[in-house]
Amino acid sequence: MSREPGTGPEMKLQQLEYVLExxxxxxxxxxxASSLYTSQPSVSRQLQQFEEELGFAIFERSRxxxxxxxxxxxxxxxxxxxxxxxxxxxxxxxxxLLASNRGTLTIATTHTVANYVLPxxxxxxxxxxxxxxxxxxxxxxxxxxxxxxxxxxxxxxGTDALSAHPRLVELPCFTLDRVVVVPxxxxxxxxxxxxxxDVAEYPIITYDRHFSGYWKVRAAFESAGLExxxxxxxxxxxxxxxxxxxxxxxxxxxxxTFDAERDTGLRAIPAxxxxxxxxxxxxxxxxxxxxxxxxxxxxxxxPRLTPELVRELVHRGPEASERAATLPAQQTARRR
Length: 336
Prior knowledge:
CATH superfamily of the largest domain: Periplasmic binding protein-like II
Largest sheet: 5 strands, mixed
Strand content: 15-25%
Distance between the termini: 61 Å
Oligomer: single chain
Radius of gyration: 24 Å
Number of strands: 12
Shape: globular
Number of helices: 13
Structural class: alpha/beta
């Protein structure tokens, strides 16, 4: 039986793709058309047909301009993301089944994890899987979750995101304790142990506010009724240490970022007793296809996350994060 033009399943997928691209382009149809290498009238026509078939509007409009999503449109976008992610998994399934040791592993991660935790893991992984291309995408904790949620990355590794991502399963790996990094000879080196009052006397260099570490440091001071003098914030611990060396202040960083041999002229003072540690977790899409080499990579990052456990949690869906959260994070991460 033949189908009417525009009603086949291929066209439905194209319509979903158009809707998602309009959202990604800030609700600009012209931007979506350009990104999709098609014309603006074509996108508008497909969108109109799709809304007519659904029987409700996806987008709020004002004078023929799209202003945002309707409540029903928000649901459509959530469903569209899941469908397009699953379609992408199906497209690569044949190759994955035929060549379990070949492919691409795209990892979204933070600067700290990329620079100080993953090098030895990736070196070992590449040795075991020479035909798997590893792609690293660096962003803040919120950004890496979004990359996995959208299907751009296979997994994310980082600390707590500041907003919820209900479609992702979170697997705690290890904790990151904090230290105060100071120049050699700094007066704080004579304190044993240091206190929040001691730290508050000096200009502080810390992580950017998009990182949970920033807010945990702020929370420690606020609970003690102190106002820290934040001189500088950055997304990279290496940048923070550079400005400590330049004499602009002291830095509150995770202990894994300090190397006594490399960070010459600097000293690290343990501060886990005054600043809360952060948990580093792996985030995966619920019900995603788990390639064997992805499971092995996860196990190398955190040996307790066995393939059997990861399969169980991921295929259980988003509610599995509640169970995963009850699993204690592994040992404090050491520099790798």
